[in-house]
């Protein structure tokens, strides 16, 4: 009976942690971004590394949940929620910035040496570029912000923190996660 509880707990752990991380991501994006690149529209998201980091640590679905729900929480708290943009384009694309690295890098099968950390940075760069291009197009189509200016400011806002933060924090975060859950868990 106890083994079944441990197994169930190890399956729920990444799902619960992904939802908690999504809420934290949204709150941090809304209230802990001191530099406004375009006041009221785009701020420098110093915590943009959270979805890819959660994806790598907990699994690609967890990374997607963190990015998607984090975007929804952020847009509601920041007063920038636009149903077509936030629920469909922005949410899905930011979710993919968490899903793709989580799909490509599994801590159980990956050695996080210098080359792997460089590959993580490249994956964050590519997924970030795709996300920024699509989100910028959505903002332009909705008449919220011109496409090329959105590319510039969203690129600075999201890609730079993902590119730097994810590879720098993945090893310390893995040590913390292993210490907190030494029996392991099923990635989600």
From TrEMBL:
The keyword Membrane applies. The chain crosses the membrane at residues 12-31, 37-58, 65-82, 88-105, 117-141, 147-170. Keywords: Membrane, Transmembrane, Transmembrane helix. It comes from the Bacteria. It comes from Salipiger mucosus DSM 16094. This is Substrate-specific component PdxU2 of predicted pyridoxin-related protein ECF transporter.
